[in-house]
Design a protein that fits this description.
Largest sheet: 5 strands, mixed
Structural class: alpha/beta
Number of helices: 10
Strand content: 25-35%
Order of helices and strands: EEHEHHEHEHEHEEEEHEHHHEE
Radius of gyration: 18 Å
Strand order of the largest sheet: 1-7-6-4-5
Number of strands: 13
């Protein structure tokens, strides 16, 4: 299947950096315990920013320096999030308004939790290949910290608030392989609308992830007729350093090929892969023509991966 090229990218995060030591204000924990269990050193809380604020900030950076003609060519804005500020309108519609994108443009939110941005890539590629769309702004953005139970040290130390955005266009010579799956289970990871506190059975999520991530990656390689060495960069959902290392070992990937920023951001759900992808580009760890694999997993339970040239 033809692929996509990235024409712009940008990130944003909460306005307060919260270290592991700072988390001791809320719950009995320690920097050593959090790092050993997760690899997280800090996270950002959006105390004076909304989800829309962060999504629009990331989107504006992705469009920075672009001409009006380029902006007018954007006919889709899609935001992956499970933490919208409003029941309606969508975060995407609000972001389009902030960025001055209007007229013949489709705006919609995608809620697939931590798999959301990867699912968004699949959706965007399908839309671009259909011929009905020219250029799409895809954003992963989450404001999670208000949904955390700050008395539960198993969950409150894990999450942070951030956003990542990319502008995508069809690339006829590019590659794109994808795989998605769902193993329905409401009792492992969820957040009730009327009692909004994230609930998670950590060990069960870990067991799911350490099998789903490498299995998804290996199947993508099989579909593409490639080996792990054919991929330039691996961008796994930044939920837990141990999960990433376990997937890398199973797939026989050098850890140096796996991009890591979980120490800085924690788990930002649908923003996780988005921010990691943008930082890879910003740091010039990947460039146009490189082959990447991105894999996400999360509530649902869902998982998904893409293998693509950028």
């Amino acid at each position: 299947m033809a692929g996509m090229k990235i024409l712009g990218y940008g990130t944003a995060h909460g306005d307060r950096a919260v270290s592991n030591e700072d988390m001791k204000e809320y719950v009995e924990t320690s920097d050593q315990w959090i790092r050993e269990k997760t690899g997280i050193g800090q996270r950002y809380f959006a105390e004076n920013k909304s989800n829309i604020d962060m999504a629009a900030e990331a989107g504006a950076k992705a469009l920075r320096g672009k001409s009006q003609e380029f902006r007018d060519g954007i006919d889709g804005v899609i935001v992956a999030t499970f933490t919208p500020d409003l029941a309606t309108p969508s975060v995407a519609a609000e972001v389009a308004g902030r960025l001055g994108i209007s007229g013949s443009v489709m705006t919609m939110d995608v809620n697939s939790a931590c798999s959301g941005f990867v699912y968004g890539l699949v959706l965007v590629n399908a839309l671009l290949q259909s011929g009905g769309f020219k250029r799409i702004l895809l954003i992963g953005s989450e404001k999670i910290h208000p949904l955390m139970d700050m008395e539960d040290r198993r969950t409150c130390v894990l999450f942070g608030d951030a956003a990542g955005a990319v502008v995508l266009e069809r690339n006829p010579s590019g590659e794109f392989f994808h795989l998605e799956g769902t193993e329905p289970n409401h009792d492992i990871l969820w957040c009730d609308r009327f009692d909004p506190k994230i609930q998670m059975a950590g060990q069960e999520v870990y067991r799911f992830a350490v099998s789903a991530v490498p299995e998804c990656g290996e199947e993508l390689l099989r579909q593409a007729g490639m080996t792990a060495q054919d991929v330039d960069r691996y961008i796994f959902h930044q939920a837990n350093l141990r999960i990433i290392r376990s997937a890398a070992r199973r797939m026989k990937i050098p850890e140096a090929k796996c991009f890591l920023n979980v120490e800085k951001y924690g788990n930002t759900s649908a923003a996780s892969v988005a921010v990691a992808l943008c930082e890879c580009l910003e740091k010039e760890e990947i460039k146009a023509g490189d082959r990447i694999m991105a894999v996400g997993f999360g509530a649902g339970l869902t998982y998904g991966g893409v293998l693509m040239t950028i």
